[in-house]
Amino acid sequence: MKKILLLAAMSALLLPLCAQAAPGKKKDAPSRPASKDCKWEKVEDKTLGLAAWVQRCDYGFRKIDLFAEKNALMMRYSDGGKPDPLIETFDLKPDESLEAGVKRVFAEHTPDKSVVARCLLKPYKGYNDAGPPAGAKRYTFVANAELQKEVDKKTDPGDIPEPACGEWGDAPDGIQYFEVQPANNPHKVMFVRAGQDEPMFDEKTLRLLGDGPMATENPENY
Question: Which domain holds residue 92?
């Protein structure tokens, strides 16, 4: 009888530990505190195909909010001006690989085709030392040697050069990149404009919505 009671007591103690250790969904929450006068809120839009934690800010004289519109996550200021796209999503064509889709979207948004021909797709590593979140890949476009020489000749020493690969390539004065998440949605790519400062969205927990194994089995595990 004493052994039975002892085993029951041990089981009661072990159950909470097992529950903590068991694999499961990660907490769906932002990866950092909100900025002063701001608060986090969740945006999840099927047309955009993205789930994102975004900040809504109230500075008194100005309010800032982010919202989904068609295939873009937009940022709006209460004191005027058109909303700016921060993230845009694009569907791949049938049988198109993720890298091929990134190249196509870049080419479609870069009017100067001579620039397209002289810009190279490279992994993007400039955001932070930690690199992209698990399950994601980031890319950018950088000038080849010939184009870079032309840009260097046009740039005065100490000045910030114009982006060699245009508005959808590597930005010398800001952070922007293409991101793919094959485990969440292998049929979609996104272009992320994080800007110069900490972005108004949580770039570490962006999640493409789709039919990948992570999206169906554990959609908050990204």
Answer: 28-217
